[in-house]
Amino acid sequence: FMLGLPVPGVFLYKVRGTNKLSIVDGQQRIMSAIRFFSNRFDEKIFRLTNVLPKWKNKTYEELDESDRFLLDDTVLRATVIQQLDPDDDSSIYHIFERLNTGGINLNAMEIRRCVYNGEFADLLQHLNDFPAWRSIIGKPKEDKRLRDVELVLRLVTLQYKWNSYEKPMKNFLSSFMAQVNKLTGDQKSSFFQKVETDFCKTMLMIEGELGVKPFHIRGPLNFAVLDSMFVAVASLESSDGNLNEKYRSLLEDKDYMVAVSVSTSDDKSLQVRIAKAFEFMRS
Question: pTM for the complete prediction?
Fold first, then answer.
């Protein structure tokens, strides 16, 4: 700005039904300017570094008057995007994904945390802390890139929508978050309560009867075994004490093992493995 060089514009997204603008691309540019004008960077004074000698170590207040005027009059252009149709805000996810130009590209769940931020995202984060869940996935500490939170979202989504699954999984999960964010009032409260109750009950049942890391088949955690078992066990009102025996029998079923080993994100593989898990867990 102070050198008079062009600075890329930012992209903002107008949240449906409000005057709120969410930052899609350009957060670092915007926050850098805000912090410099307010003379604060977290708990420190914001002083310039890696600049021309006449500006080095200076705060906004310490700049020459002409430099302050130049900075004050600078324009940062913004493109404002608004989705008119369909009524689901789905385009914002794809726009965010394509314009994500930070030093570290955000993964799918990190983008969802930005785009679909709200009470449901907070609930998923809360469930991710549940001790039995941490024991089952074999990771005491949370993943900084939210990959474990995405797994929680995957389980909850499939519990309610496995019969209507269509690949890719990434879009399927995003669509579910968008739908949940539309819930209001008693409908939202009852849904959130059921999600938490079912998740915790199922994790305690699985950990209690299958032990620690039960879905680490041939080494790493098998997501397909995890999601199919969760959906099936979550449908049980209570355990008959034979969950471990049924699970071992399920792992001997050839069709099931193919469905959790090959093309696991395909529609057919997902339908087969969850149907098989229901069959064995309810037997």
Answer: 0.75
